[in-house]
Write a structure and sequence with these properties.
Helix content: 40-55%
Structural class: alpha+beta
Order of helices and strands: HHHHHEEHEEEHHHHEEH
Strand order of the largest sheet: 3-5-4
Shape: flat
Number of strands: 7
Distance between the termini: 62 Å
Number of helices: 11
Strand content: 5-15%
Length: 239
């Protein structure tokens, strides 16, 4: 670490030092992670996995297609019009000029000699309307930008054509799929649909076995969510 010649700088220490500078100090858990990263790594990995399961996984059936559609659009733009058009269209604060990429309101200039090779573009549904940048040489500079379609991501979707699925899936299973606009527990679904909790559980098991529903533990509850396959099925049944 800085000030200690010969000491090997632990992986992640730079990020924690950066966080400490911005926050003023590290909390007790982060101080322990800084001091003993190898001993704390397993716990940190478990926490990250739990965060994914509770916070992101139930909604990934919606988020994933938005990101994939954005990447496809950007790839098509590059193929048809070149990288300059892609960078010009990426965000209002970015502009591509003959001598480089300009970013308005960036506090610190970024030059190729110190930025690392390449440029990594990251579509996101969590940036809000702004860009997020990260520069950690020798890694390439990173720009996270709002993906196309993010504004309508959480709008309630039309399920007018879902009745067409009733003949295939049955009334109860179709009803549960349409109710899973957002993740819900067995008890919540029973309350909304009028089905018995046992009936809801039975139908959810069948839907899960078919790959149309996923289950994610959140504390003492289990939340069910539509999968990408279910979203595709509902769209196909809509007029």
């Amino acid at each position: 670490m800085a000030g200690h010649p010969g000491r090997v700088r632990r992986p992640g220490a730079r990020d924690l030092d950066h966080l400490a500078r911005h926050q003023g100090r590290l909390g007790p858990r982060l101080r322990m992670l800084h001091a003993e990263p190898e001993a704390r790594l397993a716990k940190l990995t478990d926490e990250l996995e739990s965060y994914w399961e509770v916070v992101l996984a139930p909604y990934w059936a919606r988020i994933g297609p938005v990101l994939e559609a954005d990447i496809l659009h950007r790839a098509r733009t590059v193929a048809e019009h070149g990288a300059g058009r892609l960078l010009d269209d990426l965000h209002t604060s970015l502009s591509w000029e003959s001598d480089g990429l300009r970013m308005a309101r960036r506090k610190h200039p970024l030059v190729r000699a110190t930025a690392g090779a390449g440029l990594l573009l990251i579509p996101s549904v969590f940036t809000g309307p702004d860009l997020r940048t990260r520069t950690t040489p020798p890694d390439p500079p990173q720009i996270a930008y709002p993906a196309r379609g993010t504004g309508t991501l959480w709008q309630r979707r039309r399920t007018a054509g879902a009745e067409a699925l009733t003949a295939v899936l049955g009334r109860s299973r179709t009803l549960l799929l349409t109710e899973l606009e957002s993740p819900a527990s067995t008890t919540q679904l029973a309350h909304r649909t009028g089905l018995s909790p046992a009936g809801v559980s039975q139908q959810l098991t069948a839907l899960r076995d078919a790959g149309l529903v996923s289950a994610h533990r959140a504390g003492r509850s289990v939340l069910y969510a539509r999968t990408t396959a279910a979203e595709t099925l509902l769209r196909a049944a809509s007029p």
